[in-house]
Design goal:
This protein has about 160 residues and is mainly alpha-helical. It has two domains: about 60 residues, Rossmann fold (3-Layer(aba) Sandwich), CATH 3.40.50.2300; about 60 residues, Winged helix-like DNA-binding domain superfamily/Winged helix DNA-binding domain (Arc Repressor Mutant, subunit A). The chain contains seven helices and three strands. α1 runs parallel beside α2, α4 packs across α6 and α4 packs across α7.
Length: about 160
């Protein structure tokens, strides 16, 4: 069982318990899933130190806490858990997912354009939008993000 699944179970069985995640993962998706599971704070192991005390104080006041190097999910709920935050992957359109899958397969813009009946310029626009939505700065990071989050190559022929 991983920490996110443990968080979900603890929060379901003991709703009064406040969970603070201490992790080596800092992708938006990891943070999102931890908060969605019920965690109230997220810190990176490398920056924990004094941040742990601050996280405990903040969480005990009923607020969320995100340590150094951790970006709060865009829609993280600060005072109530009624509305869960949205996943960065949920913000992708079907076409963006298709482009992402082809990028993971190593296809060029021209190859993707031919398969999806788009112009290469449109494919580049989709790829740029993907990188913005997923907060990654380059194609290798985009591919790494996709692989880390189980996005598998398309079965399109």
């Amino acid at each position: 069982m991983n920490g996110i699944e443990a968080t979900r179970i603890i929060c379901e069985r003991l709703p009064a318990v406040k969970i603070i995640i201490l992790s080596m993962h800092h992708t938006n998706e990891h943070i999102f899933r931890a908060i969605q599971a019920g965690a109230r704070a997220y810190l990176l192991k490398e920056s924990a130190g004094a941040s742990v005390a601050k996280a405990i104080q903040t969480v005990m006041k009923g607020e969320y806490y995100f340590g150094a190097g951790v970006e709060a999910p865009p829609k993280a709920v600060r005072s109530s858990r009624r509305t869960p935050p949205s996943s960065p992957l949920e913000s992708l359109s079907q076409r963006e997912r298709e482009v992402l899958q082809f990028v993971v397969e190593g296809k060029t813009s021209v190859e993707i354009a031919e398969r999806l009946f788009l112009s290469p310029k449109s494919v580049e626009t989709y790829r740029s939008r993907l990188m913005l939505k997923l907060c990654v700065g380059n194609i290798p990071s985009l591919v790494k993000f996709a692989l880390l989050h189980g996005i598998t190559p398309a079965e399109i022929d």
